[in-house]
Amino acid sequence: MGRATTETPTRDRLLAAAIEVFAAKGYHGTSVDDIVTVSDTSKGAFYHYFPSKKDIFLTLVDSLATLVEQGAETAIEAENGALAKIEAALAVVLETAAARRELARILLVEAVGLGPEMEQKRLEIHRRFAAVIQRRLDRAIAEGSIPRQDTELAAQAWIGALIEVISQWLLTGGEPLVGRLPALRALLLRSIGASKRTPDAR
Fold it and tell me: What does pTM read for this prediction?
């Protein structure tokens, strides 16, 4: 037990350092030595937990995606009605990206074009997020809040829109991301036939 309590903080320090260095230098510009230096650990500690730079990056991407997914699910549970749950999830995604810009950059910018393994991870994350949205769209149809439609396609389109809006903000800055939420929400709701906020079905 004692060993586990000393190892976990070391792994956490390595992950925190990796976030900082990847966000500042990009994937290709980052070395294991950079992560070790910022984390104030050792190469031995690094390789104890992560076989390579790619491995720690994949671990980060997965954990960041889980963080966003869990936040969306928590927000969803606090709302009544399928459309309100969908809107809450949208808000959480944008608010999380805005509050943790360096993490969003790793997930949506630095993770692009890093080979087949990374692309598979990105597709897996997109599918996970789309599944969250699709479940709520299916529920909205069951409630009568939106017309019957291909919810798998709609969810994929929503994910694409969210990724593009956040990626453009990360790359160019401009208007605060959360400030774009009302217009984005209205656009996405119109795309599924819910242009006006529908009273929650009971």
Answer: 0.75
